[in-house]
Specification:
Length: about 280
């Protein structure tokens, strides 16, 4: 898939995005913003994409259809060959080190840690709102694009109202993910919920009870393990079966003989780094 096709693909999914958001979606960080500028410029000049605003500019698909993939169809995804990716203690440690040393992830992860240590509780909606915003921005969960279905004020009150949320996250209760993900019943926040619980559990309490589910894991996990499909992952997400997903990751890592500490978090780093 060409760079222009990737831009069109993500704009079809997200309606409107900034150059930095496109960079994170395509490459996993903001460092590649200059790399997509030329492609965006060509798409704007050809009338396929429209640009509005300045600092930041917002990009969206125009009404021009002839150069966009047929309606109802998205560009066929091309996956990187992962057949030589060996999941081992050594490769997980190596990938985690590279992620932590990156200009974007390392400082942002430290920032999240400091913030959670300073504001550990999730019972005050105002504090929860700040932490939602921090995790949303640093992890590109794009919550703002769903304001018609749930507002920040509503979400932070939902999280703050979850009974015994702090003790449950500290102990790795998988049901907390589902409770956040169900939110107000109008939207499924499964991916965001896995990250919210994981960061608190890992960065605040030093544990490794939660596996993250994001777009990259959903796409590439079946290429690492032949006994799971994207459809199965989608069912776990749609039916709020986080425990089944989390237990699956734990079991597969155990089968591979992974014994490093925080194995689930490091596996997430490994898959993200290899396929970002």
């Amino acid at each position: 898939m060409s760079q222009k096709d990737r831009i069109i693909f993500f704009l079809q999914d997200h309606d409107t995005m900034t150059q930095s958001e496109l960079s994170e979606a395509i490459y996993g960080d903001k460092n590649h913003m200059p790399n997509i500028y030329d492609a965006l410029k060509v798409l704007v000049q050809s009338g396929i994409v429209t640009r509005s605003g300045d600092r930041p500019s917002y990009y969206s698909l125009s009404e021009k259809k002839e150069e966009i993939p047929p309606q109802g169809k998205k560009p066929a995804k091309q996956f990187r060959d992962v057949s030589n990716d060996i999941v081992s203690n050594e490769t997980l440690e190596e990938a985690t080190l590279l992620v932590q040393q990156s200009d974007a992830y390392g400082p942002e992860n430290d920032l999240i840690t400091r913030c959670l240590q300073r504001f550990p509780k999730n019972t005050d909606p105002d504090i929860v709102a700040m932490k939602i915003g921090l995790i949303d921005i640093t992890n590109s969960t794009h919550l703002s694009q769903h304001k018609s279905k749930i507002s920040m004020d509503e979400l932070c009150h939902i999280i703050a109202a979850i009974p015994n949320i702090d003790a449950r996250i500290a102990e790795g209760d998988p049901e907390v993910v589902n409770e956040i993900a169900r939110s107000n019943g109008r939207i499924n926040l499964f991916s965001f919920a896995t990250k919210y619980c994981c960061y608190h559990n890992r960065n605040l309490y030093g544990r490794d009870d939660y596996s993250i589910l994001d777009t990259i894991l959903k796409e590439y996990l079946p290429r690492y393990f032949d006994d799971v499909t994207q459809s199965q992952i989608q069912r776990w997400q749609k039916k709020f079966q986080y425990k089944a997903y989390n237990d699956y990751i734990t079991r597969k890592l155990d089968e591979l003989g992974i014994t490093v500490d925080h194995q689930k978090r490091k596996f997430d780093h490994f898959v993200w780094y290899k396929n970002r």
